[in-house]
Design brief:
OB fold (Dihydrolipoamide Acetyltransferase, E2P), 5-stranded mixed beta barrel, 179 residues, 5 helices, alpha+beta
Length: 179
């Protein structure tokens, strides 16, 4: 009994110390698994189906687009025109059916160089006629044009927001008539 009185007071602090030292390891294994990072996919890859922006809305679907204002979405469609304004401050991107749907995408002048660099030196030319997916926050048009006030728009700030699904068809070379 006498030996117990000597051993117990000395062993209890050792047991407590071992328990405290093993606690971080226990907590590391006991916590829930972390969600995968949302921006780990390379540009032009398909978004993960579990991400909030994985719902794809067609560029001509007025009701779905306007119901999604304020949300991160993916819009898919074929671009009918992508051209810089006369001032060169904004590229307006219109899709097949987007006039009826009152939707557009834009790129501002401050981002022009990176888009042109990523799209063969001329983003407007490369995107026109291409089938694409644009990922971003859908907002109400915020510009000055009265005719666009009821439009929804996505502002493209980075090239990783753009996935080219299908390049624009190339025009067949014209044949020169024989002389």
């Amino acid at each position: 009994m006498r030996n117990l009185r000597i051993i117990v007071p000395n062993i209890v602090p050792v047991i407590v110390l071992l328990a405290l030292l093993s606690l971080p390891a226990y907590l590391a294994f006991a916590k829930e698994p972390e969600a995968p990072p949302t921006n780990s996919a390379p540009a032009n890859s398909q978004p993960a189906e579990s991400s909030p922006a994985s719902t794809i809305i067609k560029a001509d679907d007025h009701d779905a687009l306007h119901a999604a204002i304020g949300k991160e979405i993916i819009v898919e469609g074929t671009i009918t025109s992508a051209q810089w304004s006369r001032s060169g401050k904004v590229m307006n991107i219109n899709f097949d059916g987007s006039k009826k749907a009152k939707f557009m995408a834009v790129i501002f002048e401050r981002d022009r160089a990176k888009f042109d660099e990523s799209f063969k030196g001329d983003a407007a030319k490369t995107l026109t006629g291409a089938k694409v997916k644009f990922k971003g926050k859908l907002d109400k048009y915020g510009g000055k044009s009265e005719s666009l006030m009821d439009y929804a728009q996505i502002v493209l700030k980075d090239t990783n927001q753009v996935t080219v699904v299908e390049l624009a068809p190339t025009a067949s070379p014209s044949t020169k008539p024989a002389e």
